[in-house]
């Protein structure tokens, strides 16, 4: 896969052969950038993060050398790349593990905002025990006709679609959905439901928190924040981390959090013709309100340059080794603009 390839390029090529590798949910996002800091997505329960399926990478280092990082060639660089972001060089190509996956059961459910407490309580109970084959996103989407809508976005990647259909039916019973569209479809096509999530030219402020689980207090904070969404592009998403991704040892890759959790993605967005009008402040304030309920650190791919203090706890015991790798491969900090920011 070329360093500039998008998720849709990868999933589309795989679909032609009934194969897939874990990706994120938005096909317009770059695959390399997604992968290098972790790579949450709808297949993480069954196959792990995108970074867990990276087999090798070709990298141009700060001194101009082109090297191949893999378990058998520059293993320390390979370890650091799998979670450490773009701090070590320019990745020109990546090789991924593919999985046979001709069909998934996937789609979107939307519930009235008034049912948020009931739906989120049920969601918490379901994701606590769900099978590896199921990964379920949840959150809030703007609604041009009224209060925001609660969404559930399940994906079942198991061979037994009947079992997946039972899961879907259980999710639908959590409330009275105003819309539920879930069907068997190729993985690449399933990702198309998020094609409108990124509008070219929009301004974004992204914030993130990790939750060990969706406590009642966290659900209330998220619901209160959602009630204040004013932009037609802003949203709150929770990404479900469990299963295969949680069974990777913490020291096997640089990625720091390997226990079951939810990644909260707070998306403040506004059109270029609009003034900022507080949309970015809304994202900041939502993150701050969640902080007392959250785990230390956060998803490195979404940490801002103004949040360097959150980077070390994001990697836990892996952080010192990661900084040592940074000093070894980029001693002059040529890649200082990389996400996340490593102190060297």
Characterise the protein shown here.
The protein has 344 residues and is an alpha+beta fold. It folds into 2 domains: 7-100, Uridine Diphospho-n-acetylenolpyruvylglucosamine Reductase, domain 3; 104-302, Vanillyl-alcohol Oxidase, Chain A, domain 3 (3-Layer(aba) Sandwich). It is built from 11 helices and 12 strands. It has helices at 7-15, 31-36, 44-47, 75-84, 116-127, 161-172, 187-190, 216-227, 279-290, 311-315, 319-329; strands at residues 19-20, 54-60, 66-69, 90-96, 99-100, 104-111, 134-141, 149-156, 179-185, 203-211, 235-241, 261-270. It has a 7-stranded antiparallel sheet. The protein has a 3-stranded antiparallel sheet with strand order 3-2-4. Strand 2 and strand 3 form a beta hairpin. The protein is globular. The mean pLDDT is 96.
**Low-confidence spans:** none
What portion of residues belong to β-strands?
15-25%
Strand count, sense and barrel status of the largest sheet are: 7 strands, antiparallel
Task: Strand order, main sheet: write it out.
Answer: 9-6-8-7-11-12-10
CATH topology tier name of the largest domain: Vanillyl-alcohol Oxidase, Chain A, domain 3
Q: Helicity range of the residues?
A: 25-40%
Q: Helix and strand succession?
A: HEHHEEHEEEHEEHEHEHEEHHH
Rounded radius of gyration (Å)? 19 Å
The CATH C-level class name of the largest domain: Alpha Beta
Multimeric state: single chain
Distance between the termini: 30 Å
Compile the SSE list and pairings.
Layout: H1 7-15, E1 19-20, H2 31-36, H3 44-47, E2 54-60, E3 66-69, H4 75-84, E4 90-96, E5 99-100, E6 104-111, H5 116-127, E7 134-141, E8 149-156, H6 161-172, E9 179-185, H7 187-190, E10 203-211, H8 216-227, E11 235-241, E12 261-270, H9 279-290, H10 311-315, H11 319-329
Antiparallel strand pairs: 1-5, 2-3, 2-4, 6-8, 6-9, 7-8, 7-11, 10-12, 11-12
Helix pairs in contact: 4-11, 5-8, 8-9
């Amino acid at each position: 896969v070329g360093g500039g390839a998008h998720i849709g390029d990868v999933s589309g090529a795989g679909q032609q052969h009934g194969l897939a590798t874990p990706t994120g949910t938005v096909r317009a996002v770059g695959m390399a950038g997604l992968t290098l800091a972790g790579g949450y997505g709808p297949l993480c329960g069954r196959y792990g993060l995108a970074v867990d399926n990276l087999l090798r990478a070709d990298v141009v280092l700060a001194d101009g050398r082109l090297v191949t990082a893999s378990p058998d060639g520059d293993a320390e660089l390979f370890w650091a790349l799998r979670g450490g972001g773009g701090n070590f060089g320019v990745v020109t190509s990546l090789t991924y593990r593919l999985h046979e996956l001709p069909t998934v059961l996937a789609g979107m459910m939307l519930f009235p905002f008034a049912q948020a407490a009931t739906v989120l309580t049920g969601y918490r109970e379901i994701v606590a025990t769900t099978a590896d084959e199921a990964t379920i996103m949840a959150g809030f989407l703007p609604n041009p006709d009224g209060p925001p809508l609660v969404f559930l976005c399940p994906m079942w990647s198991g061979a037994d679609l009947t079992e997946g259909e039972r899961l879907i039916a259980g999710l639908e019973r959590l409330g009275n959905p105003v819309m539920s569209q879930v069907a068997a479809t190729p993985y690449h096509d399933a990702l198309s439901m998020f094609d409108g999530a990124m509008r070219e030219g929009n301004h974004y402020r992204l914030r993130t928190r990790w939750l060990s689980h969706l406590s009642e207090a966290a659900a209330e904070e998220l619901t209160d924040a959602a009630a204040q969404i004013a932009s037609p592009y802003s949203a709150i998403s929770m990404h479900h981390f469990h299963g295969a991704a949680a069974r990777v040892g913490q020291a096997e890759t640089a990625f720091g959090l390997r226990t079951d959790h939810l990644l909260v993605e707070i998306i403040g967005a506004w059109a270029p013709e609009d003034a900022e009008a507080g949309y970015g402040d809304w994202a900041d304030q939502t993150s701050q309100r969640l902080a007392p309920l959250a785990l230390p650190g956060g998803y490195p791919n979404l940490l801002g340059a103004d949040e360097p203090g959150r980077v070390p706890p994001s990697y836990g015991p892996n952080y010192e080794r990661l900084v040592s790798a940074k000093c070894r491969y980029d001693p002059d900090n040529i890649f200082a603009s990389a996400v996340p920011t490593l102190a060297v």
